[in-house]
Amino acid sequence: METIATKPQNRSSKPTAKRTTKIQASTGNGASKSQLRIKEAAYYKALVRGFTPGHELDDWLAAEKEENQ
């Protein structure tokens, strides 16, 4: 069993940062449904061109453009 050591805090100490979470669309991994569609479209664009390196950004931007039309 692994234990994690924590630094004790006294009562006068205040947290320095507040942790917040943003609720995303229900996709299970934090990405929005739109982002998942873009990711999939970019993958298929890369597949069609044989996954030659150096065009990843072009694939992503083209997929984003299609998603936003």
Question: What does this protein look like?
Answer:
With 69 residues, the protein is mainly α. It has a domain at 33-68. The protein is 42% helix and 0% strand. It is built from two helices and no strands. The chain has helices spanning 33-48, 56-68. Helix 1 packs across helix 2. The termini are far apart. The mean pLDDT is 78.
Layout of SSEs?
Elements: H1 33-48, H2 56-68
Helix pairs in contact: 1-2
Give the tags.
single chain, 69 residues, 42% helix, globular
In short:
The chain has about 70 residues and is mostly helical. Helices cover about 40% and strands about 0% of the residues.
Tell me, briefly, the overall form.
Answer: globular
| Sheet of most strands | none
This entry's quaternary arrangement is single chain
What radius of gyration results from the CA coordinates?
A: 21 Å
Fraction in helix: 40-55%
Q: How many individual β-strands?
A: 0
Give the amount of beta strand, in percent. under 5%
Query: What is the terminal separation in angstroms?
Result: 52 Å
Order of helices and strands: HH
Helix-strand makeup class: mainly alpha
Number of helices: 2
Mean pLDDT value: 78
Runs in which pLDDT lies below 50 for 5 or more consecutive residues are none
